[in-house]
Amino acid sequence: MKNALLIYQPYEGYINIGDYIQSLASKQFLGNIDIFLNRERLDEYCGEKVRLIMNGWFMHEPLHWPPSESIEPMFVSFHLNTKAYALLNNGKSLKYFKRHEPIACRDFQTVRVLNEKNIEAYFAGCLTLTLGEHYKGNNRNDTIYFVDPYFEYSKKITELMKSLWVLAFNYRRISIISAKLFPFGAIKKKLITALFYMQYSKVFDPDMLVGAHYLTHRYREQEFNTEDEKFYQAEVLIEKYATAKLVVTSKIHCALPCLSLETPVVFVDNAAKDMSSACRMDGLIELFVVLLYTHGKFSSNDINLKSRKININTQFVNKELYLKYKTMLLDKFR
Q1: Residues 242-273: pLDDT tens digits?
Q2: DSSP states of 29-46
């Protein structure tokens, strides 16, 4: 049987490269890839029978579920988002899940909603926890990455005045960080960076913020000409994470691979996230060293924030809870 790999369509003109990192995790276990299949159009495939690992977020467009009968699905690290729960009221969808149970899920919330429909399901964690088997962090360096760390950006006049004040007194530092965050300088971008600096300098040493590197998982659609280019960029990011001293992020498909790569990672969790985002975290958030962000303030049960600010010498050790899920996932493909 031939092998297929998930690819992803842009939304609002942007590509989430974290999706492609999930597909890299699948690719490890499939060998040669014969065809790419759009996650949101799996019902439209009409070629010869293919094997497809169904990991990740499903679905942005639930009208295209269930997939084609020409696809032999392997449900591993499957997440059914709240926005797609309506498809569980569809008899055809329920029969499809029943036919392919048990469903290995990425989060406990998906396990619960499937179990409520009498579909056998269990929590297995995310397949990106296995990326360390292929990408090794043998050349560890002193680089610290901030990857899409969550912070609040408000257009209120009070926030604008605060950012102007912070920018005026920290212009050199903020200008350096802004140049790393944004490819082109502008006063608006400096003001946004000033808000980031104002919030994060409460717990991170300013010199650490200035010296860090800044990355994103969000790319404009026109930056890529082919799917191979998107996979290449995903690999570039993984290789960076594999050699980093520390990664600070709010992206789960940055944080989860870091665990497998044995790269120290701090996950910044937005306490005010909506349910469509919160449902993804049920079972995963426990795997991380967490810095909880609540309207511009930070707290943590994992990090001592009282004695001193986090700096380049602060040592972080990842939790080991992920190891049992990594082993479980690897065992599925042995």
Answers
A1: 999 999 999 999 999 999 999 999 999 999 99
A2: TT-S--EEEEGGGGGG--
Quickly list DSSP for 20-85.
HHHHHHHHTTT-S--EEEEGGGGGG--SS-EEEE--EEE-SSGGG-SPPTTEEEE--SEEE-GGGG
Structure tokens at 30: 């499939």
Assess whether 168 and 304 both reside in one domain. yes
Convert the pLDDT of each residue in 35-64 to its tens digit. Answer: 999 999 999 999 999 999 999 999 888 889
Q: Please tell me whether residues 124 and 141 are part of one structural domain.
A: no
Same domain, 33 and 90: yes
| Boundary of a domain, candidates 110, 128, 146 | 128
Residue 118 CB-half CA count within 13 A: 4
What are the residues facing 252 on neighbouring strands? none
Tokens 């639930």 locate to 62
Cα 230 to Cα 2, 119, 170, 233, 235, distances in angstroms: 22, 35, 36, 5, 9
What are the backbone dihedrals phi and psi of residue 243, each rounded to the nearest 5 degrees, phi first? -110, 0
Task: Indicate the pairing of strand 297-299 with strand 144-147.
Answer: unpaired
Q: How far apart are CA 50 and CA 70, in angstroms?
A: 6
**pTM to 2 decimal places:** 0.95
Which single residue is written with the structure tokens 């397949």?
A: 127
> Could you tell me whether strands 14-16 and 218-220 are parallel, antiparallel, or unpaired per DSSP bridges?
antiparallel
Number of domains in the chain: 2
Range of the domain at 57: 2-128
Say how far apart CA 45 and CA 126 lie, in whole Å: 26
**H or E element, residue 252:** helix 252-261
Asked whether residue 328 is assigned to any structural domain, the reply reads no
Q: Mark which of 113, 128, 143 sits at the end of a domain.
A: 128
